[in-house]
Amino acid sequence: MTRLLLHACCAPCSLEPVRLLMEEGFEPTICWSNPNIQPLAEHDRRLHELRVWTRKRGIRLIEAGDDRARWDRAVAPLGADRERRCRACYGMRLAEACRVAQEEGFTHIATTLAVSPYQLFDTCNEVLEALAAAHGLIPVIRDFRPWYPEATRHSRELGMYRQKYCGCRFSAAEAAMDRARLRDERKAEKERSKAERSEGQAALS
Ligand code: SF4
Predict the structure, then answer these.
(1) Does ligand 1 have an atom closer than 6 angstroms to the CB of 120?
(2) Per residue in 81-105, pLDDT tens?
(3) Can you give the pLDDT at residue 113?
(4) Going by CA atoms, what residue is nearest to atom 2 of ligand 1?
(5) What is the mean pLDDT of the chain?
(6) pLDDT per residue over 23-74, tens digit each?
(7) Which atom of ligand 1 is nearest to the CA of 37?
(8) Residue closest to 89 by CA, chosen among 108, 66, 107
């Protein structure tokens, strides 16, 4: 088994990457470094869920640096520019995971961020590759996104807490706007169908 440090954003997103990496012959240790999650209560809730799950599964969890003030200084000012904001956010979290991996003698590094279709997949991989190279690590780049529906199903089955947004306050606002837009679209669709049915009935009478 090859020891691998797996940066994890939360417990639900860890399920499939851990299973798939183990099938490939890796022995994952999980590393938590997510100073992006706001508010603090949400951060603590996700971390708690990850602690419970790793304990149950007998997987080692390393709780690495979580410098929330630094995230606010370095990433928050990029707020509205999603590409730059997420790149800087990935950079901060994955740099900490790489630092830990190097310190603890791991050779390989990966991230559970690669399971979510809501992440900027290519940006995240670019950042991981560059940081891994700088720390003398081998990045394990995998596209876990096809397993996202399975991760959703399985985490629901396990009764895990599932968050509704990526982590930062900007993503919470973006997710709320997306939900509102989808609600409006569904409502408009219903009204359109209702109007079409009424027109059809009027034409028949
Ligand atoms: S959307 Fe997610 S990855 Fe992007 S800055 Fe916010 S917390 Fe970080």
Answers:
(1) no
(2) 999 999 999 999 999 999 999 999 9
(3) 96
(4) 166
(5) 96
(6) 999 999 999 999 999 999 999 999 999 999 999 999 999 999 999 999 999 9
(7) 7
(8) 66
- Where residue 34 falls (left for φ over 0; alpha for ψ -120 to 50; beta otherwise) is beta
If pLDDT is split at 50, 70 and 90, which confidence band does 204 have?
Answer: confident
**Ligand 1 centre and the CA of 152: distance in Å?**
20
CA dist 85 and 91 (Å) reads 10
CB 168 near ligand 1, within 6 Å: yes
Please give the Cα distance from 197 to 203 (Å, whole number).
10
Q: Is the CB of 18 under 6 A from ligand 1?
A: no
168 CA distance to ligand 1 middle (Å): 6
Instruction: Name the β-bridge partners of 62.
Output: 31
